[in-house]
């Protein structure tokens, strides 16, 4: 996938690096569910679960359900084309301000709208936003893009 400006999300994450956008996890989950069904693995798991060594197979129905949820983890559009979470506060804020992304806002380093990203991305988005602000879009696209980075708070814990 060619790197381009359309894949830079308002928050500084790069949609091209997102497993939801790439669709790999969704595809693999779909294919595994199909394979499990073709082998009627539910019956195998049920039988295996009766053996103490394979007791974990009692959880097979939940596993299959989680795989089904993972099939839905597909984002066909990049952030700026309307993909990603529909409740995205950064998208709404940037559109309201008429800016291309949070890196164009002087307050991004202390903006609480970005806080929900910390659980899944650490401080990767902040590192990306700093790069975008300093190096510009072209410099960002040429350099390292962070997807997950442990924040200094976690490093000190």
Features:
0% strand, disordered C terminus, 157 residues, mainly alpha, single chain, 8 helices
Beta-strand content bin: under 5%
Q: Helix coverage percent of residues?
A: 40-55%
Mean pLDDT: 92
* Biggest sheet character: none
User: So how many helices?
Assistant: 8
Q: Rg, please?
A: 20 Å
**Strand and helix order:** HHHHHHHH
Structural class of the helix and strand makeup?
mainly alpha
Q: In the residues, how many domains can be counted?
A: 2
Low-confidence stretches: 152-157
End-to-end separation in angstroms reads 37 Å
What secondary-structure arrangement, pairings included, does this model have?
Elements: H1 19-22, H2 24-38, H3 41-48, H4 60-71, H5 89-97, H6 118-121, H7 124-142, H8 152-155
Helix pairs in contact: 2-4
Can you describe what's shown?
This protein has 157 residues and is mostly helical. The protein has 2 domains: 24-71, no CATH class; 85-155, no CATH class. Helices cover 48% and strands 0% of the residues. The protein has 8 helices and no strands. The protein has helices at 19-22, 24-38, 41-48, 60-71, 89-97, 118-121, 124-142, 152-155.
